[in-house]
């Protein structure tokens, strides 16, 4: 019984509406590992793809997931639907443009 519940079926929705997956991940998988998987599966034809884990934000159930958390720790009630696929949204956060002259206030987020 626990073998199947320890797996979470996830697809990642990109900003243009396309998807990566679905693929099954163990509940013990941390968010940083998910991001590495997304980078490895990123469609080659898409411009401005992520280069590092720091370039990505994963959003699930309206929350930005932290790299050090596992899927089990991030689990919401909708993850428990048998046979269901969880959709997580992926945002590529480009590195700051150091030559633009634009300063970001500390703590502000620009998407």
TrEMBL record:
Assigned keywords, A-Z: Cell membrane, Lipoprotein, Membrane
Any one annotated GO CC term: plasma membrane
Membrane topology: Lipid-anchor
Subcellular location: Cell membrane
Signal peptide: none
Domain (UBL3-like ubiquitin): residue spans on this chain: 6-96
Protein name: Membrane-anchored ubiquitin-fold protein
Membrane among keywords: yes
Superkingdom field: Eukaryota
């Amino acid at each position: 019984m626990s073998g199947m519940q320890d797996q979470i079926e996830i697809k990642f929705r990109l900003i243009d509406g396309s998807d990566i997956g679905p693929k099954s991940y163990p509940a013990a998988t941390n968010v940083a590992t998910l991001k590495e998987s997304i980078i490895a599966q990123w469609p080659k034809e898409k411009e401005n793809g992520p280069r590092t884990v720091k370039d990505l934000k994963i959003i699930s159930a309206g929350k930005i997931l932290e790299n050090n958390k596992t899927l089990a720790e991030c689990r919401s009630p909708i993850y428990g639907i048998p046979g269901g696929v969880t959709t997580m949204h992926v945002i590529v956060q480009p590195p700051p443009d150091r030559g633009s002259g634009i300063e970001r206030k500390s703590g502000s987020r620009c998407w």
